[in-house]
Fold these 2 entries.
Entry 1:
Amino acid sequence: MDQAPRDAFDHADPLRRLTLDELRLRTSMKWRTYPDDVLPLWVAEMDVPLAAPVVRAITEAVARGDTGYPSGTAYARALADFARARWGWTGLAVERTAIVPDVMLGVVEMLKLVTGPGDPVVVNCPVYPPFYQFVTHMDRRVVEAPLGEDLRIDFTVLEGAFRHAAAGGGRAAYLLCSPHNPTGTVHSAEELAAVAALADRYGVRVVADEIHAPVVALDATFVPYLSVPGGERGLSLMSASKAWNLAGLKAALAVAGPAAADDLARLPEEVSHGPSHVGILAHTAALQDGGDWLDALRGGLDDNRRLLADLLAERLPTVHYRPAEGTFLAWLDCRPLGLGDDPAAVFLDRGRVAFSSGPLFGTGGAGHLRLNLATSPELLTEAVRRMTVAVA
Ligand SMILES: Cc1ncc(COP(=O)(O)O)c(C=O)c1O
């Protein structure tokens, strides 16, 4: 009975519901890395209250004392239902999934299944910095295939990287980021099919990080890599953690295409010990019942992309921003401002606003920064004001 009013909030833009004072009470990385005079728009946490079904799932689990080890396939079934309803994809088979502790550890495990020590892993730079850190930490080699000027996959460059990677004699993999962090690019079905064809030609295995999949503009469509022709040999990592702000509630799913089922079957059993039971309950509730909240978020992010474009056009017109369809991230080319390789450092120092440093994203990152759009329009406006002050 008392659930209806609480859930009714899930139709309202969650980005407009918390004040700066409320956010500063948070103890997570976004809010505790810098002193209180710094406005943080860096790490990929969102300034949102949780969706009501997620709060309910966690609260009820705690009330039951249901904080033991995970069991069952509810998370995978919820993801399969979500994939069918949202993306029209009926090919996500629960028996070809495995629960992993989080997306990056899942990426590591998938790469261990299809490559060996010293083998090459192709990435489209600029890209999420842990792609470099985790891949090198597991004793694989990163091969860069920079995105094109339009921030989309450059197929000539990708083919060159695949050829180079395959020529070494080892087992090559391609770590696809879909949608792409930091640019927000949502790859089309045609592009993904072209990836699959190219990967097949060069014997490269595709591991797709699809963590941002649910977070696309209201008029955009995400295409799962495993759903495109040729994607059957792929492995994907999915999670509710980015879309519903659940990074602290660890859980994710590895999904195999039909022709990769044998690979996933080799995943050691102990990997399933890592995820949190309460995390799985939260992720499952988000996918099952968090659709209204997600759509309100997507609408709010559409507003924020337009707002950022308008603010920059008005106050910092030389900064180049190409609003994209996916993620809650914005990739800003600040080179015309002449602030050197790391403009985020200058904005932090002079403007007291924190962004992610472009050079960490690999080749193509110098002179750029990544801004986290998942905040209120007021704080986004304040962030651009601080940028303006920093270069005045
Ligand atoms: C592309 C991408 N992959 C993985 C992650 C991290 O996910 P997890 O915390 O589940 O490892 C992020 C976080 O921002 C991300 O943007």
Entry 2:
Amino acid sequence: MIEGSKVLLVDDNGEIVDILTDFLSMNGCVIYSASTGKEALEALDSTEIEIVILDIRLPDISGISLLDTIKIKNPTVGVIMITGYHDPNLIVEAMKKGASDFLIKPFEFDKLIFVMMRVIRERKLLIEKQNILESLEDKKKIELLNRELQKKIQELTTMYHISNRFNSLNVLDDVYEKMIRIINEILDATSCYYIVDTEKNELMLYKELSVGNGDFNPKRLAISNGLLEEAFSPRRYHIEGDKAFLPLLIKGEYIGFVAVTGKGLKGTNKGSFSDSDLFFLKLITEKASTQIENRMLYESLFEGVLHTLTSLILAINRRDSYTEDHCKRVTQMSLALSERLGLNGYEKDVLRVVGPIHDVGKVGIPDAILLKPASLTNEEYAIIKAHSLYGEDIMNKFEILSNEARIIRHHHERFDGAGYPDGLSGEDIPSCSRIIAVCDTYDAMATNRPYRNALTRQEVMAEIMRCKGGQLDPALTDCFVEMINDDGEWDG
Ligand SMILES: [Fe+2]
């Protein structure tokens, strides 16, 4: 059972070392020897010793000190102390420091074998215990890493969710309302948005979601010094009572504050908000600020573009007063029809822009053709038809009006596919183009032209019904006819 054990004999008495070497070698042990503490430590450093048989008296260091060093280096090494005299205090001290046993010289070899066998068993148990502890420690570390990883994944997922929600906003969405909804979802808290009344130095409630349990947000709040100081500090939040206030900043100026009501704890530096809560709140307010800034930029660009287009329209109108009035009426009818059809605000906005300028391409048609007080030849008609393409070209010069450009291109398509310029049919024609087509057709017939007088209302309605399903979208035509019959105010 002790065969193969690596044993270090440490004794300055060469005879004892020789005897023990012979005896233990015969029993299959691998023997190393040292006559001083220094040699013993060198042997322990260079070889994986399992048992040390250690004399308590050495020339350079006491056996007890060496025992201590050995046990600190490797607690699984079994140390059997040997001594020439019996000293109970020494024995107790050695045992306290981890000696496996204590043999008094001269000792019987059988007893040594017996003690060694026990030491080997104990050592095995000790190693097993250490392995178990290490694997438990590893398991704990893995669990900790897993938890951190899960937290990171959760954090990234939430960040992605927040970015996604803001990126998917369309021009009609209310950024403030979305921001409040996202905060309420992510933090499971309630929030609202305040704008600033600088005259009264107060916050005024601007947007909140209805809450059913009697919670309410104050309509007005005094602005504290802390709020403004911390809004501009790198910390970018301010806690008052159970609320966290975060500014929406645009170009370094605040435009308002989000107030988030936490739960429970009050009066601490972070209120009841964790670092993670505050991190997400800052991310949400940053995203909302960017959205609002982009919209402000878009609107100012849009205003500029519309101003330019209006100048173009004025130039056309100076040539052709019919076009001016015609475009006005087509816009009004298109908006009334879109209202009746229940279209969304975005489509109405598009019609509001496109209606007055749907014939902007006529700027490219020579006066001799545009203002001709007689029927057009086929060649002249072909030139007139190009106005929808010219109109698209003009609109495409403004990147932000690409949708409007498409609607202008197709405002002379026919529902049956026989229109121009692309021969699109049915719902392939943009809905706003189909609306303009109905109103355009009606108005062209209902008003006096240079080469003919207006048709009577009865004649116009008959003609419109005749065009239903061919030139004009049948559902839109029905709705339009209904509108004319109800309102009767579009006669030129
Ligand atoms: Fe036109």
